[in-house]
Design goal:
two-stranded antiparallel ribbon, TIM Barrel, eight-stranded parallel barrel, globular, 13 helices
């Protein structure tokens, strides 16, 4: 049966505020949590970029929730360092941490000055890094020369069970490829027919593995205000995945989305003042068979969102999920 988590957006809120929000989410009845892992926010209006890995240790200690994050090995993070970070969290909090890996965006990964390759080459490097990380978690001493270089690396602190490795995908083609190596899938909300195609591709190559969904929404005081906030805070919802991967600065994302208004963005991100309207929209995605749906309210009033959804939306969603499950 589908469970429902809270998404903590490091682009939008300070680490201290996010720690309070995940504690509140647990108290309100959310089942799990995840967070973003950015060096830059998408836009300057979002205004934050806390270090996810420092924060995750605090969040896992402060709550009993499971946590995951989407990271990119091979650029900003060397795969051996990322493997060590994930191993430590999995060792300290058994069964509560999963790691999603993707091919990344230039926005975060080009800060080291390394060349930003095209998507096929990034996928090749991602596959290399996954093999390196799994070998390190298995206790092997790894030396490797390819897209990345590793010299005699051994992890001495390893969890009994390595973290679940989830593949991030935005297109059916990537989802089909991810199904061949990942333990699960994570994606973001698209139109239902597009998501069904993406899930079918993943399951055709990967079999019966769990799939997670990050569901963006805007909950506001009025429909108009919720739409306006969606356009201000998350205009990137309107950009194609290849554009998301290539732009390098928040200012470039602002320029690419400056002509968008609230009504346009609301076509992509549900934006309402009435909690009940979200039940049908989110419930339709639960019917596709996602194991977990992480709710990301792009608006500023996280506390009100957490309390209202805990009281009025999550119970209804669980009833919907029970009829599906």
């Amino acid at each position: 049966m589908t469970s429902f988590g809270y998404h903590a957006s490091h682009e939008q809120f300070s680490p201290a505020d996010l720690l309070q929000y995940v504690q509140a989410a647990e108290q309100a009845g959310f089942d799990a949590a995840m967070c973003s892992d950015h060096f830059h926010p998408w836009t300057q209006a979002q205004g934050n970029s806390g270090f996810a890995w420092a924060w995750l240790g605090a969040a896992l200690q402060a709550t009993g929730l499971s946590f995951g994050t989407v990271s990119v090995p091979g650029y900003r993070y060397h795969p051996a360092v990322l493997a060590q970070a994930a191993a430590t969290l999995a060792f300290m909090y058994p069964g509560r941490f999963w790691l999603a890996l993707g091919s990344g965006e230039a926005l975060n990964e080009t800060i080291t000055g390394e060349r930003w390759p095209p998507k096929p080459e990034r996928n090749e490097r991602l596959a290399e890094c996954v093999e390196i990380m799994r070998a390190l978690w298995a206790g092997e001493t790894v030396s490797h020369r390819g897209g990345v270089v590793v010299e005699e690396a051994t992890l001495f602190t390893r969890p009994p069970n390595p973290p679940m490795v989830v593949g991030a995908a935005l297109t059916p083609e990537t989802a089909r490829w991810v199904g061949g190596w990942a333990d699960g899938l994570i994606t973001i909300a698209h139109p239902l027919d597009e998501l069904k195609e993406l899930l079918d591709g993943f399951r055709d190559s990967g079999g019966d593995k769990p799939a997670f969904l990050q569901f963006q929404l805007s909950f506001g005081d009025s429909d108009a205000q919720a739409s306006r906030v969606a356009a201000e805070q998350w205009p990137i919802a309107m950009l194609a995945s290849d554009v998301l991967a290539q732009l390098r600065r928040p200012e470039q994302f602002e320029a690419a989305t400056q002509m968008l208004d609230g009504a346009t963005v609301a076509n992509e991100i549900p934006a309402h003042a009435q909690p009940a309207r979200f039940v049908d929209e989110i419930g339709a995605y639960a019917e596709l068979g996602f194991e977990r749906i992480y709710l990301h309210n792009v608006g500023p009033d996280q506390q009100r969102f957490i309390e209202t959804f805990g009281e009025r939306v999550l119970p209804e969603l669980r009833r919907v999920a029970a009829t599906v499950g």
